[in-house]
Design a protein that fits this description.
alpha/beta, Nucleotidyltransferase, domain 5, six-stranded mixed sheet, five-stranded mixed sheet, 26% helix
């Protein structure tokens, strides 16, 4: 049985999950392969203080050590520059030390797991002002690839007019305020390692999305600018 440590640090949520075929972690999203979850879903960045504490705790309370792990999964972005750097550095360090494969999971794809399968999902991470990082999905199929989008009241109108849409992520509230849409669902949620679990186990089993640790970099989407 494979054990995969999932790390999510793309937002202020410092989130660590343990995935395996047995699953068992109770959740409302239908995630099958999560065994345990620890996170600090607060408004301040705590990754530097809590990430390795959470990794140690989630392993210990399931009777495991790092030696039991078969892979490390990282939420690759887009998202916070600082959060991405901390998460990826930690994941790569563990992979080097333990000689484990690194699996990268698209953050917006994982976010889409907050919605019901029958819905069209617009995953949307806030990127300051009226800009978001967005992608469109339906039943895990990518309808629109990840892009940086400057929101207007007409953004994604072709999807929203048809209804049965979930707009999910930290960019959802400002989009709803802008377009005044009362026909579709808007969920203000941060990325979480919980929704990485099924994707991580699937990728590990198929041996795809396994990264070259030496050259792997987070998916920033846009170049980092200080200030």
């Amino acid at each position: 049985m494979a054990w995969i440590l999932c790390i999510e640090t793309t937002s202020t949520n410092c989130s660590v999950a343990l995935a395996s075929e047995d699953g068992g972690f109770a959740n409302k999203l239908g995630i099958k392969y999560c065994v345990d979850l620890l996170e600090d879903n607060s408004d301040s960045y705590s990754h530097g203080e809590l990430l390795h504490v959470y990794i140690k705790e989630v392993l210990e309370r399931n009777g495991l050590t790092t030696q039991n792990l078969d892979a490390i999964a990282i939420s690759k972005g887009p998202g916070s520059y600082t959060g991405l750097r901390i998460g990826v550095a930690s994941a790569k360090g563990l992979c080097y030390a333990l000689d484990l494969p690194l699996v990268s999971i698209d953050t917006l794809t994982a976010l889409s797991f907050h919605a019901s399968p029958e819905k069209t999902v617009i995953s949307m991470v806030d990127a300051r002002r009226m800009e978001v990082y967005s992608g469109v999905f339906k039943n895990e199929i990518v309808l629109e690839t990840v892009t940086a989008t400057v929101l207007t009241e007409d953004s994604f109108a072709g999807y929203l007019e048809k209804g049965n849409v979930s707009v999910i992520g930290t960019g959802a509230p400002k989009f709803k305020e802008l377009n005044k849409d009362d026909k579709n669902e808007y969920l203000n949620v941060r990325p979480t390692a919980l929704t990485m679990c099924d994707l991580a186990l699937q990728a590990y089993t198929k041996s795809d999305i396994v990264e070259d640790i030496a050259y792997y970099e987070p998916f920033y989407l846009k170049e980092f600018k200080a200030g």
